[in-house]
Records
---
Amino acid sequence: MPKKILSGVVISDKPNKSITVLVERKYQHPLLKKVIKSKKKYNVHDEQNKFKNGDKVKIIECKPYSKTKKFEVMGDHK
């Protein structure tokens, strides 16, 4: 099964080697046919502590680093 790749915005960079990323997705309600926006926060591993608040990042699924960290920052883009 391929790994999940998501893109979002960094909303917190306080913990060491971790960031919190807000991922927003749009989908159509099956019955009402209305487009709905949903948001979800992911705790992400950031080895070099180089991403700051407001940065757009792509995250990829990986082995669990802790109870809540199951994603890491993808590539070296900023």
---
Amino acid sequence: MTTRAIIPVKGFENAKQRLSALLSSEERRRLCQAMVEDVLIAVEACPLVDEIMVITNDPAAIELAEGYGALILPEPAEPGLIPAVVHACQTLTQAGIDQMLFLPGDVPLVTPEEIEVILDGFSPKGPGLALVPADDLGGTNCLLASPPGVVTFQFGIDSFRKHVKAAQAVGLEPTVLKLPGLGLDIDTPDDLKRFMDRLAFQGTESHTYRYCVAIDVSARLSSVTGGGL
């Protein structure tokens, strides 16, 4: 069974606007690049992933992804995450890929072990779907689909619950896993604070953490929030 991981990257420029009160445009760009690199490192290190594909038109993202041996799929003409994932799904189906593992580029705490947990415990006799929700059970931070187009994609607000309903609508009961690394996606200052708090005493060498330390994100968070969020 062949598994291809797909990572949509819409572009580093002008990304993560909800962090604009904390970080400059250039800092947000570099933060996004660091997060994508951490995701690529985790996926590349997981022995159960056969191929990586990054969906992007961003030259910096293309250069970064190719450094990790990833395939590049240009973004479709229609903007948005759902069109990008549908485009990837169609490409994988045409190539005869059995399983599609969707990961966003802003989950820098993901580990190879978490990805292995998802894949190792997934052996449906027929079509199947596995979901990893965000910590608040709102978004979908990882999706494993076999075959790639097994359900209609529901990314956006409350996508986790919508994906569960979409699976049930076609007679599937999805596997749901809550995983601490994948559960945290970085969109807001609160997310960034949780990220820094979790890694502060671990001596991590993640690209995202090192960049946040380099620009003293913790001090900025304290200044913006008056010492806490």
---
Amino acid sequence: MVNFGKWSDPSVPHKGWACTYIEDLGSPDQTCEMCEKEHIRYVHYMSHPDYPGELQCGCICAGNMEANLVAAQNREAKLRNRSSRKRNWPKLRGWHTSVKGNLTMTKDGYRITLFKSGQGFKASVVELTKNVPFYSKRIFKLELEAQSASFDQVEHMKENN
């Protein structure tokens, strides 16, 4: 008999799942917990009212579990696009050194500034229409790490407006 992971287990629901979160691991470092076969980079966290906890699954299994492969593919495409934009964030032409010597950029209605703090760097993101700064909570060893965190903050602020 061929084993298809939890697909072969009648005690595990096969339909009616919902995706609660999706994450980019950066490389295919995990095995799908539903089929227990595919190595996945983009993890769809799936929950079901009749199953304890969540399963971390690949796109195809997630789409089959929620009976909507297109929704799973769209989620993953959006995350792939975001990952690509984050990778290119430090290379954007808008970055320049301010009069105070800080790396800064204005993009999409936000002013992003990286500055020294203690032994490392922090980021400040200001939505220009509100002029209220958000400061990174962590101090990063490298300026590039603070720059990467500033991308995440801008994305978070866009999603919550």
